[in-house]
Amino acid sequence: MSELKQQIELAVQAIRKETDFAPRIGIILGTGLGGVAREIQAEKTIEYARIPGFPRPTMEDHAGILHFGRLEGQPIVAMQGRFHLYEGYTPAQITFPVRVLKALGIDTLVVSNAAGGINRKFQAGDLMILDDHINFMGVNPLVGPNDDTLGPRFPDMSEPYDKKLVALGMDIALAQGFRCHRGTYIAVTGPCLETAAEYRMFGVMQADAVGMSTVPEVIVAKHAGLRVFGVSVITDMCIPETLKPADINEIIAIANEAEPRLTQLILRLISKM
Ligand code: HPA
Asked: I need a surface site. Which of 16, 95, 234, 252 has the fewest CB within 10 A?
């Protein structure tokens, strides 16, 4: 058995000592987007610190709790607290929880994040449903020996985000009257924000939004055969000609303001899964 598989089994054993709850959908809650966590009818919560192999979050607003329970009647497991490359974790550490959720039985992964708007039609506060991505992090979580029992050596990436879920998400957002787009997310490591020249380049690359997360988890989810839905909250616009110093408090304020819309979108989507 591969070392990775042994680590997954240890984590699953630790979780199974505390709950036999069988989730179908995994959710990774990003920055300032804890609204969904409050809607969960919890059966069990487990701190990451109690799960072998789970890294501990370094940022205060990332709580580090696994919630098992129901959302809209569906059995889910939600990660409150996620890991980023800029914190110093390896790609393997960042994506380990996705492996564990898969081993617990999920077939679908829902991820959210905060992102900067590259597409000039966007406004701060808009939602963007991911329909593709560009891995611009310079690393890939699948580099290294492949365990064929976890997924193929050369996983397909022709449809990282499930087309039916993208369409369903767009229908829901439209019916709710939310400003929502579909587009390409480009992932960078951070932690610095980008220069005007970098934002201009992302525009040339036809990226619609830029952020510091999500892509490693999605790559591992696809490797594991999961169906994926991803959504960004556009927290700031990245227009090269008028770039001002980034205000992290403003970014958090916009993420919080958009939280009820994101929560509605995710709840309604999950009710239809
Ligand atoms: N760049 C990278 N990540 C981000 C940004 C950005 O401009 N805004 C929110 N997350």
From this structure: 16
State the Cα angle at 132 between 183 and 62, rounded to 5°: 85
pTM of the prediction? 0.96
Longest dimension (CA), the chain: 55
pLDDT digits (tens, 9 = 90+) for 177-222: 999 999 999 999 999 999 999 999 999 999 999 999 999 999 999 9
Is the model more confident about 102 or about 55? 102
Closest-CA residue to 222 (of 126, 121, 99): 99
3-state class of 69 per DSSP? strand
* C-alpha 268 to ligand 1 mean position (Å): 27
Q: Whose CA is nearest to atom 10 of ligand 1?
A: 115
Contact criterion met (CB below 8 Å) for 190 and 89: no
Say if CB 109 and CB 101 are below 8 A apart: yes
142 lines ligand 1 (CB under 6 A): no
